[in-house]
Write a structure and sequence with these properties.
The complex is a heterodimer of chains A (477) and B (372). Chain A has 477 residues and is α/β, with parallel strands linked by helices. Chain A is built from 16 helices and 24 strands. In chain A, α1 links the parallel β2 and β3. Chain B starts with a strand and ends in a 23-residue tail after the last helix. Chain B is built from 10 helices and 18 strands. Chain B has 372 residues and is α/β, with parallel strands linked by helices. Chain B folds into 2 domains: 159 residues, FAD/NAD(P)-binding domain; 147 residues, 2-Layer Sandwich (D-Amino Acid Oxidase, Chain A, domain 2), CATH 3.30.9. The chains are: A alpha/beta (477), B alpha/beta (372). The complex binds flavin-adenine dinucleotide (2 copies). The site of one flavin-adenine dinucleotide (FAD) has 40 residues of chain B, from α1, α2, β10, β16 and α10.
Chain lengths: 477, 372
């Protein structure tokens, strides 16, 4: 059984939910799928399991989005893991087929238009001990705080870069957690340099300052232009050693400091979750500032594949404001393609996107991958945590003749594990590009393949009779 | 002008790599021209099954010898391709499959494959992971698998040690005859050889066309899937009577599921996409055979291109009308047999009498038009 719609939206974060609401408002039959139990995406993750939420601004904005989506005629399907997408030229003449696992097993949906709004993955630039239990990502920590009201530990080191650093520090303080140290890759002047762009959005700048202030109020030691040297511990992290870094994030000589703790929250920005557009063989480009590889899109967020749209962080990490705007813009484009008059509203959104860009770029530049930080990864440090591949093994494969990222994978198993490179590809590609002195485009990317998320075989196949398996005709004897 | 080598091989899959290696070890100076990196098309993405029970009857004598070569690869190749030799079972779940299995196993047995037909209880002893419903099984002790993605690395090292000049990331864009041999054009310097081997997998059709030879090659697009690591759930290679399942668990715990279910792809774009309903069908078959696989999670699925001639037998031998030029490919279940068949071709090129006959392509070429 295949359900048919005018448009399918994958992801019900700010981008996907706005796209669905906008297209449905103009009479399009829209289905929006998300693996989470409610809309809101990462930034506005809904509280779960009895946790009432914090009632803060994020929570209220999320509730607002959830209410508007619920009131819209769009069909929402939560708890659905999308694992396969096929599209034009990939076994179909036009349109898309999306397969998702839900409470009733596998479901297929079809539509002539598909909006990809799958958000971002967290980037952690590897350092010794980063795979120890008790080390979690900054973004993951925000989810823990938002949806469970839980803290990762009792005494925590918070490290990395960008706005999430302040968000997490403030969240932990509010949760009554002791903060051993806040370690920011950026120097104070890096923030100062971005002040004009930040001031362009006074409400946000104010919020950032307040967040930082709250963390400082709690008396947590704050280290600008520092990074994690290593995390130590037998079973789990017990101590974190930090040291000074230069403007590129590379470690430099200077005093190292150690902090006892039972958790390290660390993140070095976000990368685009562009698995679906890669699977669809849309054209992509590399943009270090905005999270790496992303689909090429036009003003209405159309990719190079007919009927395929990409919005939000998955099409370039630009933050929630731009994600919401892009989602609406794409939803309207789908409505317009089918006759609605949306020109004025589109023009308004286009202007809003232009206004939001400087702030977005300023934030993105704090979070972008720093090649020097990657270059400093030690030979013995694990880069691919699923398959336990170290930097030394990556270098050895390059010495053995590996010249592109697929060859590296075959030589080392780097990227072959459960996460399929979602966590290691950004570092592995960068290491290879630097070692060979070529561009990231030359090194390339691992080919996009299903499943988009790991899925249990038993769930995929459901109940069946042997006689109903469509076994093809045997090969000749 | 580059100096002519004794041999230029075009295409660095298993057939090209093996031909180049044995020719070089036989004393020839060899250049290997490969569009990408070695063994990254069919030869690097295949299921690695080394089985008699999916091999075409005519190829069984070749496959048996090839199996012995794979089993001792560490010795003669010098590098590891992760070969495991184990028992193999081909299963029948229905009456029709039972008939098919009895017939096919009998023919393969006549050709030399040591396949015994056994009942459900005996099959269960060979493979305790089996599910219910098995009516009959073909049991072969000459079975096993390699880790196909290691093929390129292993051959690369061996080829470098044998002194083969490797030209990776060098796409051949034309082949011409010249006095005393052939010139293979690339976007950089051309490669010249007194002899030529075309070993371009599904691309041998356009390559032969450069020499004016029209050999139609059908492109099969095989789907494959691999699970995440799991506790040991099986210890044999499992197939079914129709040949549309191939299944084994690697020592590190992942299981590769294949069997030739067809996906989406073509010569120009490679193995592009999987058909989800066929992936589900293939996985249903796998879980029916080994139920504990249901607990595993799917990590990745992909598709690769396999070549097939009109009679589904290999295209390996001299290229008619072109002295000292050969083609090597389109071997069914070619990862198994191709290794040995490529060695036969190398023997022929080295002037030795091949131990078993080659598969000349004259039979497949359109007869030249005769004047009325
Ligand atoms: C873990 C995390 C935490 C973050 N926390 C903050 C924060 O606290 N504050 C802040 O300002 N920014 C935060 N960000 C950045 C913020 O997410 C983005 O700027 C913004 O939310 C982007 O919106 P989006 O709609 O593009 O993506 P998202 O909000 O990420 O939404 C994407 C949605 O797609 C769904 N999805 C993806 N793939 C599939 C699939 N295969 N099947 C089904 N569903 C799928 C996801 O479940 C998710 O709900 C965070 C990012 C991450 C990755
Ligand atoms: C998914 C799949 C599963 C399979 N499973 C099994 C199995 O379990 N057991 C088994 O025995 N067999 C299996 N096979 C079959 C087996 O993989 C093939 O028969 C065998 O690998 C073919 O080797 P080849 O060298 O002829 O072709 P290929 O490996 O395709 O090599 C051809 C090479 O030519 C190169 N080339 C192409 N054009 C040019 C150009 N213009 N210039 C230079 N180089 C060029 C290509 O890049 C490629 O490297 C499977 C095949 C597939 C696709």
């Amino acid at each position: 059984m295949t359900a048919r719609f005018d448009a399918i939206v994958i992801g019900a974060g700010p981008a996907g939910a706005e796209a669905a609401i906008a297209a449905a408002r103009h009479g399009r039959r829209v289905a929006v799928l998300d693996e989470q139990p409610a809309a809101g995406g990462q930034v506005w993750r809904a509280p779960v399991g009895g946790f009432a939420g914090k009632g803060d601004a994020d929570h209220r904005a999320g509730d607002d989005l959830r209410e508007r989506l619920a009131a819209s005629p769009a069909t929402t399907q939560f708890g659905r893991r999308v694992w396969s997408v096929v599209g034009p030229g990939l076994g179909r003449d036009t349109g898309f087929r999306v397969d998702a696992l839900g409470p009733d097993g596998n479901e297929s949906l079809e539509a002539p238009a598909l909006v990809v709004a799958t958000g971002a993955h967290e980037r952690v630039t590897p350092f010794p001990g980063w795979t120890l239990p008790g080390v979690i990502g900054l973004a993951a920590a925000t989810v823990l705080l938002k949806s469970h009201g839980a803290a990762p530990g009792a005494r925590v080191v918070v490290a990395g870069c960008g706005p999430l650093l302040a968000v997490v520090a403030a969240g932990l303080v509010a949760a009554g957690v002791e903060i051993a140290a806040i370690v920011d890759r950026a120097a104070r002047r890096d923030w100062a340099m971005r002040l004009p762009a930040l001031l362009g959005r006074p409400s946000l700048a104010l919020r950032g300052a307040m967040l930082a202030g709250r963390a400082r109020l709690a008396g947590a030691p704050f280290f600008a232009a520092h990074g994690v040297r290593r995390a130590e511990g037998e079973e789990a992290v017990r101590r974190v050693v930090i040291g000074p870094v230069d403007a590129q994030g590379a470690p430099i000589a200077g005093q190292e400091r150690a902090f006892d703790c039972d958790a390290l929250v660390v993140g070095h920005g976000l990368t685009t979750a562009c698995e679906v557009t890669r699977l669809m063989r849309a054209e992509h480009r590399y943009d270090r500032l905005r999270g790496g590889w992303m689909p090429v899109v036009d003003q209405a967020f159309r990719t190079t594949v007919e009927g395929l749209y990409a919005v939000g962080d998955g099409a370039g990490v630009r933050g929630q404001i731009m994600a919401s705007l892009a989602g609406r813009r794409a939803g309207l484009a789908i409505a317009a393609g089918q006759g609605a008059d949306v020109a004025q509203e589109c023009a308004r959104i286009d202007r809003a996107l232009v206004r939001a860009a400087p702030f977005s770029d300023a934030m993105a530049s704090l979070m972008a991958q720093r090649p020097a930080e990657v270059a400093a990864i030690a030979a013995g440090t694990v880069v691919c945590r699923c398959e336990d591949v170290t930097r030394g093994e990556i270098d050895a494969a390059i010495t053995d003749g590996a010249r592109d990222i697929d060859q590296l994978k075959h030589f080392t198993r780097c990227g072959m594990g459960p996460c399929q490179g979602r966590s290691c590809s950004d570092a592995a590609e960068e290491l290879m590009a630097a070692a060979l002195n070529v561009s990231r485009e030359t090194v390339g990317r691992w080919t996009g393949r299903p499943p988009l998320r790991p899925v249990a075989l038993g769930e995929m196949i459901g109940a069946f009779d042997y006689a109903d398996i469509p076994i093809p005709t045997p090969a000749p004897l | 002008m580059s100096a002519a080598r004794d041999l230029v091989v075009v295409g660095g899959g298993l057939h090209g790599c093996a031909t180049a290696l044995f020719a070089a070890r036989g004393g020839l100076s060899v250049t290997l021209v490969e569009r990408g990196a070695l063994c990254r098309e069919a030869s690097g993405v295949n299921a690695g099954t080394l089985t008699m029970q999916m091999t075409r009857v005519a190829l069984i004598p070749y496959a048996l010898r090839a199996h012995a070569m794979w089993a001792s690869a560490r010795d003669w190749l010098g590098h590891d391709v992760g070969v495991v030799v184990c028992d193999g079972l081909s299963l029948a779940f229905t009456e029709r499959e039972e008939e098919l299995l009895a017939f096919r196993a009998g023919k393969r047995r006549e050709a030399g494959a040591p396949i015994e037909l056994i009942g459900a209880a005996a099959a269960q002893t060979v493979e305790p992971g089996l599910g219910e419903g098995v009516r009959l099984a073909g049991h072969c002790k000459v079975d096993g698998y390699a880790n196909a993605y290691l093929t390129g690395l292993a051959f690369r090292r061996a080829l470098v040690e044998a002194g083969v000049e490797l030209r990776e990331h060098a796409e051949a864009i034309g082949i011409e005859r010249e006095a005393g041999g052939y010139v293979v054009k690339t976007r950089a310097a051309p490669a010249r050889g007194r002899r030529l081997v075309i070993a371009g997998g599904v691309w041998i059709e356009p390559m032969l066309a450069w020499l004016g030879v029209a050999l139609p090659i059908k492109v099969l697009v095989n789907q494959l899937a691999v699970t995440e690591r799991q506790r040991p759930v099986m210890r044999t290679v499992i197939g079914i009577a129709s040949g549309l399942l191939s299944l084994k668990q690697y020592p590190h715990g992942t299981t590769v599921i294949g069997g030739g279910w067809q996906g989406v792809g073509d010569r120009a774009r490679g193995g592009l996409a999987l058909r989800p309903e066929r992936l589900i069908g293939n996985i249903r078959l796998a879980c029916h055979a080994i139920p504990a696989l249901k607990q595993a999670r799917l990590a990745r699925a992909w598709a690769g291109l396999e070549a097939e001639t009109a009679d589904a037998l290999p295209a390996v031998g001299p290229i008619p009308g072109h002295p000292d030029a050969y083609v090597c490919g389109s071997v069914h279940s070619g990862y198994t047999s191709g290794l040995y068949i490529a060695r036969l071709l190398a023997d022929r090129i080295l002037g030795r009498e091949p131990e078993l006959p080659l598969f000349p392509i004259d039979r497949l070429l359109a007869q030249p038009q005769r004047a009325a």
